Amino acid sequence: MSDFLLEVEDLEVHFRSSSSVAKAVNGVSFTLNKKETLGIVGESGSGKSVTATALLRLIPNPPGKIAGGRILFEGKDILALSEKEMRSIRGNEISMIFQDPMTSLNPVFTVGNQIIESIRTHRKVSKKEAKKAAIEMLQLVGIPEAEKRMDMYPHEFSGGMRQRVMIAIALACNPKLLIADEPTTALDVTVQAQILDLMRHLQDTIDTSIIMITHDLGVVWEMCDQVIVMYAGNTVESGDVKTIFDRPLHPYTWGLLDSQITSDSENEEKLSTIPGTPPDLREPIPGCHFADRCPYAQEVCFSKKPELIEVEEGHTVSCHFQTKEKRLKRKEKAYHG
Ligand SMILES: Nc1ncnc2c1ncn2[C@@H]1O[C@H](COP(=O)(O)OP(=O)(O)O)[C@@H](O)[C@H]1O
Ligand SMILES: [Mg+2]
Predict the structure, then answer these.
(1) CA nearest to 166, candidates 95, 86, 88
(2) 63 lines ligand 1 (CB under 6 A)
(3) Residue 57, SS3 per DSSP
């Protein structure tokens, strides 16, 4: 058996409509070690959430379907498990935090009740023990006066406090893997920093592996060991965080980095974004999915799909012009427009 906690191989997820099939995830592969944090980064619509949802086998079917690939969790073939076995994995061994905590907390139950429920669904403990554990969880995620707040309702909490509650619920059962899908996107910058601090602290305290989904490379830099960059259902680049920031190679990653740098600066510089929009995933795309928006694209990029190749140890990229032998040079201001 391998040492990986999670191995994903060639994952494909399709969404069918009456007249077409959208290939939302189109052959994504990655591995995750124990205690490691993997970042999945990419613009909105690139397939990050669908990838995460597939890991828990929660793709709505119909219209969605895991159309191919393999997901091994501790060597267990997730796609071959029964629904009952899957239920015992969800929330127990793998749990997920969603972008908007308001949609995942139930407004009619107190926060305390929801944590207690979640603990008792997964562990055989008395109500009293579960309550004690729930208070401890709230304290762990930095909620002041935890005991008093157990009796409050979600709407009585601020956005940041609700997200802390979601993290508490997700961690209540000591999951081996925590998937955080844009956990700070709905929060303002200060609260966002606090939540990230909290997650880093928790990771030091408990031995959970994390998949951190974000469109923000700053979050990846602060939180992750490994990163995969997704675009239009494909991995375009992957490697350890230092390599990706030191030597990014895919023009799409360059575009993401450029838009990050200018959006952080306080001067008047124009915010750079990558011009254009992602392709329609219902249409066949013969070449590179990014070609339409790539300032470096040549003829071959529109006719032939580049393979994801390892250009140096642990660093993969799918671009016709980035191989072991040849390197494309990054232009300054390629994306300013
Ligand atoms: N339930 C669904 N039905 C149809 N298409 C979907 C569904 N969920 C996601 N998709 C499509 O899958 C693609 C990837 O979406 P998603 O994974 O949510 O992107 P993101 O990277 O922003 O998380 C998008 O084109 C989206 O429209
Ligand atoms: Mg998403």
Answers:
(1) 95
(2) yes
(3) coil
Is 28 close to ligand 1, i.e. is its CB under 6 Å away? no
Q: Which of 193, 179, 244, 260 is nearest to 222 (CA)?
A: 193
**Cβ of 277 below 6 Å from ligand 1:** no
Tokens of 303: 């006719």
- Looking at residue 232, the DSSP 8-state letter turns out to be T
Quick one: how far is CA 103 from the chain centroid? 18
Which residue from 13, 41, 49, 282 has its CB within 8 A of the most atoms of ligand 1, so it is best to mutate? 49
The tens digit of pLDDT for each residue in 107-146 reads 999 999 999 998 898 888 999 999 999 999 899 888 999 9
CA of 59 to the centre of ligand 2 (A): 13
Residue extents of the structural domains in the chain: 94-174
pLDDT at 177 over 70: yes
Give 25's strand partners.
Answer: 13
Provide the sign of the torsion angle of the four alpha carbons 279, 285, 290, 295, taken in this order. Answer: negative
C-alpha 323/C-alpha 326 separation (Å) is 5
| Beta carbon of 60 within 6 Å of any ligand 1 atom | yes
Q: How many CB atoms lie within 10 A of CB 116?
A: 24
Residue closest via CA to ligand 1's atom 4 equals 15
Residue 264 pLDDT > 80, yes or no?
A: no
Centre of ligand 2 to C-alpha 46, Å, is 8
Inter-helix orientation angle 127-140/159-171, to 10° = 130
- How many Å apart are CA 177 and CA 209, to the nearest integer? 5
Q: How far is the CA of 24 from the centre of ligand 1 (A)?
A: 6
Question: What is the pTM assigned to this prediction?
Answer: 0.93
Contacts of 229 (CB under 8 A, 6+ apart): 41, 42, 235, 236, 237, 238, 244, 250, 252, 253, 256
Q: In the prediction, which pLDDT does 259 show?
A: 85
